[in-house]
Amino acid sequence: MRLHRIEAAVAVGQGDLLLARPDVSDGSRGNVVDSSDGDEAVFHAGDPTKGLSGHGCARYPFAVATILLCGVDVYFRGKLEALLPGHHFVTTDSVDWPDLVIADISRVDPMDVADSYPEIPILGFGGHTDTAGLRRAHEAGFDQVLVKNALSERAAQVVDELIA
């Protein structure tokens, strides 16, 4: 998980996660050890109400989804990783079971994807001129089918809806 400018300390035996923000407005740069400076948010895996500090930036950690990319080219994968920071992206050769499948319907058979992942939400995308491919993805039972430009514009919103 990428923590863009956030330091993390995990006490595995206690199930605690401590996040310190080094870019706090008071310039103190935060500290993962000194919880008295008020720059930390503490989360407890077993009880979400336990240990949550009163700091203004404290909040529950966001859900990290494992997203399987089927037929997605390297360039568009980079774009998706930038649009969906914090999620874990894998390809079909991974052993991680996905929470969501994103498939380029111009490069894979929608029926094969739907048959391979029947219980997983599937988001398909293709070019706006590939109406036959978009129709095949709908017929295969994809949860969402978008043109590539719409996916670029609304990726975070659509993924959040599908993994909720």
What does this structure look like?
The chain is α/β, with parallel strands linked by helices and 164 residues long. The protein has two domains: 1-60, no CATH class; 66-163, Rossmann fold (3-Layer(aba) Sandwich). The protein contains four helices and eight strands; from the N terminus they run ββββαββαβαβα. Strand 6 (100-104), helix 2 (110-116) and strand 7 (122-126) form a beta-alpha-beta unit. Helix 2 runs parallel beside helix 3 (131-140). The longest helix is centred in the C-terminal third of the chain and has 16 residues, at 148-163. The radius of gyration is 20 Å and the shape is globular.
Report a brief summary of the structure.
The chain is 26% helix and 23% strand. By secondary structure, it is of the alpha/beta class.
Tell me the helix content.
25-40%
Computed over alpha carbons, the radius of gyration is 20 Å
Query: Which CATH C-level class of the largest domain is it?
Result: Alpha Beta
Mean pLDDT: 77
CATH superfamily of the largest domain: Response regulator
What is the topological layout?
Elements: E1 7-11, E2 16-20, E3 40-44, E4 66-70, H1 74-83, E5 88-91, E6 100-104, H2 110-116, E7 122-126, H3 131-140, E8 144-147, H4 148-163
Parallel strand pairs: 4-5, 4-6, 6-7, 7-8
Antiparallel strand pairs: 1-2, 2-3
Helix pairs in contact: 2-3
Which structural traits does this protein have?
Rossmann fold; 164 residues; globular; alpha/beta
